[in-house]
Amino acid sequence: MNPAYEALLRVLRRARRLLLWRSVERAGFLATFGVMALACLALLASLLLPLHRSEYVALRTGLLLGACAALIFTLVRVLRSRAGLPEAALEASRLIDPREDALLTALELGRGATTRSVAALATGYSDALTQQAVRAAAERAASLPLPLLRAWRGRSSSIRRLGIALAVVAAVAALGGSRTVTGVKRIADPETAPLAPIQIRVEPGSEEVEGGASVPVRVYVAGTDRKPHLLSKERSAGSRPWRETTLEPAAGEARPRAGERAYATVIANLKEDLAYQVRASDQVSPVYLISVRDLPRASGFRIRYEYPAYCGLPSEGTNAITGDLAAPRGTNARVEVLLNRSVDIASIDYEGGAARIHGEVGERLARFAVPVRSDAKYRIRLTDPRGRRVDLGPYEIKSIPDRPPTVTILSPGAVEDVTRDLTATILAGATDDYGVRKVLLRYRVREEEQRVETLHQERDGVRELAVRYTWSLAPLNLLPGEEIQYEVGAQDGNQIDGPQVTWSETRTLRFPSAAEILASVERQQDSSVATLEDAIRNAQGLKEKSEELARDMGRTRELPWEKGQDIQKMLEGQQTVREQIDKVAEKLSQDADKLAQSRALNAELVQKLSELHQLLNQLRDQSILRAMQRVQEALNKMSPQDLERAMQNMKLTQEDVVRNLERTIDLLKQLKMEEKLEAVAERASELARRQLALSDSLARARQPEEMKDLAKGEKEIEKLSQEQRAALDSLSTELKQMDPESAREAEEQRDRLQGIYPIFEKSIGSLQDAMKQEARESTQDLAHQLEEMRNAVNKMKEDFVFRKKNDVGRKMDASIQDLLEIADAQEDLLDDEKSATGERASTQQGLEETTEGAANRISELAKKTLFITPDVMEAIGRALGNQKNAVGRYSMEDMIGGLVASKEATIALNQAAQALLKARDAMASAKSSTGFQEAMQMLQGLAGDQQKLNSEALSMMPGGQGGNGQDGRLTPEQAGALERMAAEQEAIRQGLKEAMEKLGQSGGTMGRLGETGEEMKKVAQDLRGGRLDQQTVERQQRILSRLLDAPRSVEKRDYSRRRTSRPGVDVVRSSPGALSAELLKARPSLAALLARGGRDPVSPRYRAVVDQYFQAILEGKAH
Known about the structure:
Elements: H1 3-48, H2 53-80, H3 85-96, H4 102-112, H5 116-123, H6 127-142, H7 155-176, H8 178-188, E1 199-203, E2 207-209, E3 215-222, E4 229-234, E5 243-246, E6 248-249, E7 260-267, E8 274-280, E9 283-284, E10 288-292, E11 298-306, E12 316-320, E13 325-328, E14 331-339, E15 345-350, E16 357-358, E17 360-362, E18 365-372, E19 376-383, E20 389-400, E21 406-411, E22 415-417, E23 423-445, E24 451-472, E25 483-492, E26 501-503, E27 507-510, H9 514-554, H10 561-596, H11 604-637, H12 640-700, H13 704-738, H14 740-755, H15 757-768, H16 772-831, H17 837-862, H18 870-891, H19 895-925, H20 932-955, H21 972-998, H22 1009-1024, H23 1030-1051, H24 1077-1081, H25 1086-1093, H26 1103-1114
Helix pairs in contact: 1-2, 1-3, 1-6, 1-7, 3-4, 4-6, 7-8, 9-10, 9-12, 10-11, 11-12, 12-13, 12-16, 13-14, 13-15, 14-16, 15-16, 16-17, 16-19, 17-18, 18-19, 19-25, 20-21, 20-23, 21-22, 22-23
Organism: Eiseniibacteriota bacterium
Region (Disordered): 232-255, 831-855
Coiled coil: 658-730, 772-799
């Protein structure tokens, strides 16, 4: 930058500062003059006028406002003045010549010289000329008298005016003398000035009124026009600020004096002592007091209950009109009393001298913290600001105690038997008013100490709790006849008085002996027999009614309304019979359950009961139901012809029902006898076991007290022996008709038991007297004799079963021979080519009658054993039907039709003989009448064979030792192995079928073994087709699993209702003459009989055995 231009700028900046100072000085003079004028006027006013405090406040406020305005004026004036460099250059140029502006020109040229080319173009001057002009201006500016710029026009006159103003103020102050000082002080501090002379008169001033009254207040003010203010507060408010209300001019009733203005207000609904005063301008009246005559009283209560933790409830607030408290024990009650007026002191006093509770007072209320611990009464004592005391109450405190929990055992019952798996499922429910925390189990085994276990625990507690607990009793080592007494308890979470525990009623779990279980089942079966006998009577009555209705239907073309009603009643009676059968079936199922759960019994009786249960289910669900449906459908159609056919079918069904019910009753009676024998045997075993255990305990006894305790056990054994003697006596009486030999053996055991009672007495006396040696001899003698009795009773039971089986076997042999002889005679009739159709009809009718007799004998035999399956009766029914058909054909001279029917009858007779032979063979080789044990052994063998086959199949899977050949194709050796495995699988399937046929089952009783047979068939097909994949292996694993589970499935009673029985057809006819002796003497070979029958119903696998057995029968060598 050009040095000459810089020098010029320095001069011009100094000139600008001088110009700014000139502006400030001029504005300051004007502001000071204005303030001096205001001060002079304020001082004159204070000296000349009688001012008071409020006026001095106004004067001071005016002076402060004037000073602020002067300051603002000065700032605005300075800010609006022009004091830039151009103005400074122009003012400096005028110091040379008023018309001179050379410095301003040089300043502009200097600014343009900073950009040379642009400057030359804008000004038209060369750069050298411009610099020369700037330098000349800078030299001239340096020589200018710049201080002259501070001078401004009128400065001297302004100074004179300010001096005059100061002189005037000083003269006024001097003339005022001491009043000037006082006036200045009062202007500076208006509080030192006197108040204005204002007069205030208040009506009524202080007075006493009734609570809730409204008090009119009139205020008369003289000396000011301003509205006065009413200041008020309750007397009990203490240091709280006054409430201020502006008073309005009064209406016509006011009587102001001269110079007064009247104002009025109303203080409404006074409930507290009230202090008030009136302020007019800065004048305040005295404080007046309006007193309320009412004593403090409660207008309401606000109560908040803070419940204890054990309740699990949140705090709760409520409004009440009394101070009565009711809450759970341990609650803290926050009581807030709403009062008509404020009080100074509030407290609670309990009746009975308990500690006082001091409360917290507020504006027209009092607060208390009241603990609820017990029932009590209390009063609230209040003291108002005037010292008056009031007692409120009495009020009651009701402490609601925490009720103990309730607990209920839903199952098991009061006395229940232990199940076979030694577990008990306890289902219990517990409730508590505030929550259950624990569910406990307390029990005692034998004479041991009680034990307590926690079944369930809740963290926070619930009001209702249900617990299901599976209790394993195996670790307790229970013996038959022992029991567990137990209780379920519930504990709450009360931490105030301590947790409360409630126990349920004592219940008992018994490990029943086999004799007790059998006795219970026997009692149930007495009821079942009575129910079935009643059902038979009902069925027979319904049968007669059905026959009568069927005859009536055949004589009419239309169905009368009365007959329809009779048929409907008959159906209802049939439904009753069905319900009776259902009831007995359910009882049999329950008996089977009870026996199956006994650990001491074999499964024979269970199987028999299960068979009877299934038999009744089939009868109820199929025969009766179908017949009822057909009658109902015909009744709905209103067709006499359909009804006649349906009634005929109903008649046949009822006959079948009667026969099956009679069979069930007979089987139940036999089963009842077997159960009695089983019970006697089990009781004998129990006697021997207990006596042996007592002898062992005696050998270990060391103290006399221990021996005396054993005397109680000996008494229990003696009591059990008396029960055994009574059972043997009853058994001998019932066996006299059925099996005299078993009855004689039962009497012998009864007398033998009677003879050992003296030994019992001797043993008990020795134990009570602590004579160990004598007691040992007696107990050992008893143990020996009871063991011998146990063996004898078991032999009696086995002999009874053996004799009954032999008797049934002989009758089955006779029935088989009858069927074979009838079949032989039937074959002779087929071979007779000379007889005419009439003779053939007569002969065929005789054979039919003979077959009916055999059928009746087999039906009676079926009442004594379960081995005779429905297949036998179905085959005989087909034979009878074909024989009847043949009689009809021959009678109509239809030779070909008669021969065909006779041949079918022969085949059916052979099939019946074959089925009966299988039943006889199975029963002859069985250890029992049902063959259950043999079937289980067969299933175990089949399971072993299946396991070997599965292992071989796994070894041939890819990755095994015998994996597939090259490229996944089977080698000739592998293909041959699969063919052999398929044959083995088919053999196992045939064995399973035989095992199922032994008991006449289709798989339902033994764990769905029918489906297992289908699985075996699929495996055999896969293996024959050369397929061995993962699916085949999995199917084999399922087969093995079901074979292993089959014995257990029997005891779980997994029955199926898909079996059906088809009864034989009854035919009513006249009896022909007896068969000739020659006909009965003929004994053709079995091969000839079967050859003439047209087909061989016996499997080739059993052909040799069947031939041998039949030949032995025909030759009279069978046993």
